[in-house]
Predict the 3D structure of the following.
Amino acid sequence: MTAPRIIVGTAPMLIIADHASNMVPPGIELGVDTALLGNHVAIDIGTAALSEALAGALSAPAIIATVTRLAIDLNRDPAVADVIPAASDGHVIPGNLALSAAERALRIAAIHAPYHAAIAGEIAARRPALMISIHSFTPALATRAGEARPWPIGILYNEDDRAARPGIAALAARGLHVGDNEPYSGRTLNYTMNLHAEGNKIPYLGIEVRNDQIGDAAGVAHWAGIIADTVHHVRRQLG
């Protein structure tokens, strides 16, 4: 079993980072060049450091993934085929092409289930007033090189936009170009927040930071400050 990393905190919030690691668990052979593990297809670049910085700034607990999404995507329904991706942004993952049902079930049981059990356990032990999901996105997809992604930050949400709306407004008030359900829509890519936040009627901020903004310590510190201020504003608005 591969467990997530847990940061203890006292604030009534919970930070989640689904794609914070590029670690390949022992026994899994992806068949890719090791250089690919530093690419955005394997890890949401900068999100581990950003989540840690936010946890410190907010005194909040955090649950941080410790496995690459090329082994299994923790922000996907385990029942869908692409929870274990055969390819990502033009890169084929050979080790995932011919998995048996038993091998798929083993990855789900050993990696996906413990991660989500940890989140559910934290919520059951101390229900947060706000959940904060941290992701990052690449400035340009290799398969859509001509598609502009101008937003330095985006806020994602599905049906529950109680936190998203004041969050977008607070970021826009700083003069930032904020993606409203961009570069991805929370109406289609929102499994973890759908399950644990919307499923429990807990307001949440689904945050996407462009990864060229958080590739070093200075960028992480800058955005941790902005996001922490935004979280405080959202909490005041929620009452």
Q: What stands out?
A: The radius of gyration is 17 Å. The first strand starts at residue 5 and ends at 7.
